[in-house]
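User: Can you recover a sequence for this backbone? Please restate the input before giving your answer.

Assistant: Of course. Working from this structure:
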């Protein structure tokens, strides 16, 4: 008999928003209601449990207002069906395929729990076959133009979502894990490369649903930590911290290796840096360094976690030192990163070169800053990365006082040349 899945949409949205438990959501509803002009709204854990059941009751209008405010989705997208409407009008069909602002296919809000099947209609190899394509996309991410790869990854998630209703047992579990990774990759491209946080959030919520189907706590931790970037980069500290708390809970549940625990510290450190708390960020990075020094760095990490290493941790550190005003320390850290960065890590190289340019601009060495910025543009011409271009734009703002110098004008000519401009518009 297939196990009951309940209202997976609400549960995934709750966890993605940083509410690790039903009690946390109930408390948030009670605390938020007065801010919306709603008095005496008493919601218990039992009520949240009913909402996350297989047949959730339709919430009262005031509750709907608070739920949609906290979770950022419509009440139908959260898995509720109005008593006067037996069908879910938000389900995605072939004629209602979401499209991103760039015109590329996008992942819409979660359409509901994944379908179950009493009998598999797909062969037992479909899970491993789907996972093999997911692994190929993971490798292609580091070299293929994001806008080109994104469309392929999104279509792959649609295929996986369709196939999961035609599988059972271990095959379904393997397929769900690969599907969660594909959603995670789609969200990473949305956020870091295409700079579309809303689309990224949709992908992460769906990925969390798939990770739940696979019962893969480490994938859940990775997805939740990625969701923290969204409020973190906007300077919303409390939201970022709540999501990181949820990610750490999943990491503990999955007995995360030292490398992953250090990455969680690095993610939270970047969020704190964006929230103007570099002291806490540097403390978190120091803790991550200790985790790697004391832990078993040879302990196997999930194969999909290819975005972090001790060198990447040092890159986080250098950027935080720069923003904290520790210019000399940042220069030393970032030069060390550049010396140890793998030759094929073009995206990260752009970030480091941009940060080195910012260090020299902060130190009052504009010509040297332009030299590093030009190197970053050289790398961008090979591997486009929107976050890397943002770093160069930030450097240019720091060089405003020297805007009439020939080396700054030369940098402007390159920044706004045909190739770079077209790449930025095509991202």
């Amino acid at each position: 008999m297939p196990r009951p899945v309940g209202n997976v949409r609400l549960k995934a949205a709750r966890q993605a928003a940083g509410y690790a438990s039903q009690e946390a959501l109930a408390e948030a509803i009670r605390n938020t209601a007065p801010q919306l002009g709603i008095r005496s709204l008493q919601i218990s854990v039992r009520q949240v449990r009913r909402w996350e059941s297989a047949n959730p009751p339709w919430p009262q209008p005031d509750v709907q207002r608070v739920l949609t405010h906290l979770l950022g989705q419509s009440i139908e997208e959260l898995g509720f069906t109005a008593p006067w409407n037996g069908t879910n009008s938000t389900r995605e069909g072939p004629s209602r395929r979401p499209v991103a602002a760039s015109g590329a296919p996008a992942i819409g809000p979660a359409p509901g729990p994944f379908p179950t099947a009493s009998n598999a209609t797909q062969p037992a190899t479909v899970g491993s076959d789907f996972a093999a394509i997911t692994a190929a996309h993971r490798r292609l991410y580091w070299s293929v133009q994001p806008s080109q790869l994104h469309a392929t990854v999104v279509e792959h998630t649609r295929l996986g979502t369709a196939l999961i209703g035609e599988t059972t047992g271990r095959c379904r579990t393997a397929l769900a894990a690969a599907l969660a990774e594909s959603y995670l990759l789609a969200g990473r491209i949305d956020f870091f490369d295409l700079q579309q946080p809303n689309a990224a959030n949709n992908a992460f919520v769906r990925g969390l649903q798939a990770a739940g189907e696979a019962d893969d706590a480490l994938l859940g931790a990775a997805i939740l930590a990625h969701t923290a970037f969204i409020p973190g980069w906007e300077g919303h500290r409390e939201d970022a911290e709540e999501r990181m708390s949820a990610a750490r809970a999943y990491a503990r549940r999955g007995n995360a290796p030292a490398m992953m625990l250090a990455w969680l510290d690095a993610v939270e450190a970047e969020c704190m840096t964006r929230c103007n708390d570099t002291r806490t960020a540097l403390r978190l990075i120091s803790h991550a360094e200790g985790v790697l020094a004391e832990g078993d760095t040879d302990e196997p990490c999930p194969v999909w976690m290819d975005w972090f290493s001790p060198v990447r941790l040092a890159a986080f550190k250098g950027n935080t030192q720069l923003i904290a005003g520790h210019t000399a320390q940042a220069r030393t850290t970032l030069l060390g990163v550049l010396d140890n960065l793998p030759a094929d890590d073009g995206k990260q190289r752009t970030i480091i070169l941009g940060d080195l340019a910012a260090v020299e601009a902060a130190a009052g060495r504009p010509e040297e800053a332009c030299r590093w910025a030009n190197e970053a543009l050289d790398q961008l011409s090979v591997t486009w990365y929107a976050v890397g271009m943002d770093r160069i734009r930030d450097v240019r703002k720091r060089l405003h006082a020297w805007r009439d110098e020939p080396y700054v004008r030369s940098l402007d000519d390159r920044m706004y040349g045909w190739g770079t401009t077209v790449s930025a518009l095509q991202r």
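That completes the design. Confidence is low (pLDDT under 50) at residues 86-96.
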